[in-house]
Structures are given as structure tokens and as C-alpha cells.
């Protein structure tokens, strides 16, 4: 009984198949490759600039490595300090030692993550307050909002807990802007 088709049914089935083909072609379509370029610059020149806070009395502990990354070293490499490191079982707070400046085009949320083999011995205080007042030192600070041309400040606390003279504390601090 169904062997016979009318021209109207054939056109309707054909139109449905054509519309499915057009939708599929559009969703799977490609407009061609686009180019993205980005200059890799030093921490101090990036859109989210990370640099020593010149208003901190501890800024001598920061240096720019050959890679362009800012490093913080509480050791004998600081020519401004007469000491060579931290005490066993001691804890040192370096308030607002790092300045993070938003040199981009929109407000950014700045977040900090602590890692490394001794991450439990390092905590940070992150603030966007212009008076550079740190909040509480913690291993998981809340992100702060930083407007264009504004700053956030990062303090670092290092503890010698479980370490003896001659050992070192190794932590990494990652700054993320979203």
C-alpha cells in the first residue's frame, strides 16, 4: 500500500532532509584560521604586573630572574640584610612585599595559589587596600578585585617549622588574574 508516493510527500521529505543538511553545515562550519600573537615580557611589564613594592621595607628580598620572573629569596643573597635566613621554628612576616598592578583594560580578580614541596610552611596575605594593610595570613586567601591601574599587595609569611639549620623552605606562589 505504501509503495506509491505522491509528489507532495516526496517534496516534503526532501525539504526536511535539506533543512537538516543546512543546519548541520552551519553548526559544523569553519570560517578559517585566525592569528593570535602575544609578546612575552618580564613580570614588571605584563598586563598583570608583579613587582617589588618599593614602599615595603623588605623589598630587597626580591629580584628579577633571567627568565623575567620575580623571585623572593629570604637567604644570603639579599645584600641589604646582614642575616642569611630564618630561624628553625621561627616565623617571619614580610608584609606587602609584592605589588601587583592591573595594567590591562578591565577590572581583574587576582587570586593566589601556594604550591611547592614546603607549601604548608608558607602563607600569604592579599589585599587591594591602598594603605597596604594585610588581612590574615592564610594558605588560601580570598581573591581580590583590582581595577585598571590599581594595585593589590601580597605579603608572605615563611615558617621554619620542622626545619633545622642548613635546610631550606621551598614554596611557589602563583598569581592568577581572571
What is the compact description of this entry?
This protein has one helix and nine strands; from the N terminus they run H-E-E-E-E-E-E-E-E-E. It is mainly beta and 178 residues long.
- Count every helix, treating DSSP H or I runs of 4 or more residues as helices: 1
User: What is the 3D form?
Assistant: elongated
Second CATH tier, the architecture: Sandwich
**CATH first level:** Mainly Beta
- CATH-assigned fold name: Immunoglobulin-like
Mean of the pLDDT scores?
85
Overview of the molecule:
- The protein is mainly β.
- It has one domain: Immunoglobulin-like.
- 12% of the residues lie in helices and 31% in strands.
- The chain has one helix and nine strands, in the order αβββββββββ.
- The protein has one helix at 7-27, and strands at residues 48-52, 62-64, 70-72, 91-102, 108-115, 122-127, 144-146, 151-159, 172-177.
- The strands form three sheets. Strands 1-4-8-6 form a four-stranded antiparallel sheet, with no helix packed on it.
- The chain is elongated and about 65 Å long.
- Mean pLDDT is 85; it is low at 1-21.
Q: What's the arrangement of secondary structure elements?
A:
Elements: H1 7-27, E1 48-52, E2 62-64, E3 70-72, E4 91-102, E5 108-115, E6 122-127, E7 144-146, E8 151-159, E9 172-177
Antiparallel strand pairs: 1-4, 2-3, 4-8, 5-7, 5-9, 6-8
Question: What would the keywords be for this entry?
Answer:
three-stranded antiparallel β-sheet; mainly beta; 1 helix; disordered N terminus; elongated; 178 residues; single chain; Immunoglobulin-like; four-stranded antiparallel β-sheet; 9 strands; 12% helix
